[in-house]
C-alpha cells in the first residue's frame, strides 16, 4: 500500500519544463528517482537518525555534525539548492533510493562541462540501518549505467578518506582505479582523501547489475546534450 501511494504522488509531479521528474533508474532491488517532497521528508528523517558513527566524519563538508533537526532541514535545503543551481554546463542530479517502496538513502551524480569533458563524479549516503546489505554497490552501479550507457560518459570519479573502507570496497567491485590524493581540513585537522577513476572499458568489464533507464530522452538538453 505504501509503495502504491508513493508512485501515485510521484506521477503527479510532472513538468514539460523539468522532465527530470519523470526520470527513473531501476535495478533488480532499487528504484532511483528525483525526489518528491514526501521522499525528501523520508530522507530527512534518515539523516536525523544518523548516517555514520559519530566518532568518524566521512564527508569533506561535515554536515552530519549538526544536531538531528538541523541535519534534517539541511537535507531538504541542499536538494532544493541543487535544483535551483542546475545549468546544462554544471549540474548535480541527486536521486533518492527506494527499496520496496521505502527511501533508504540518496545517490548523486554531477558534472561540469559534461558535453565536452564527458566526466562525472558520484556521491551517496545510506541510512545506518540499511548499510552492509549491498545496497551501496547496487545504487552506484545504477548511476554509472545512467552516466556511461545513458549519457555517454567516458570517466566516472569518486573519492573517500583513506579510512573509509566501505566506500573503497564498493569502488573495487565496480572497477575503479587509484587516481591520486587530495588533502582537506575536517574537524580542525588535516585529512587525506584518495581519488578513484573508472573509465568506460573498466565499467564495461565489471558491469554485472541489470539497470533500466526510463524518461531520459526528454532530459538530455538539461545535461547539455
From TrEMBL:
Gene3D superfamilies named among the record's database cross-references: 3.40.630.30
UniProt cross-references to PANTHER family, sorted A to Z: RIBOSOMAL-PROTEIN-SERINE ACETYLTRANSFERASE (PTHR43441)
Entries under Pfam families matching the protein: Acetyltransf_3
PROSITE patterns given in the database record: GNAT
Official protein name in the record: GNAT family protein
Segments forming domain N-acetyltransferase: 30-199
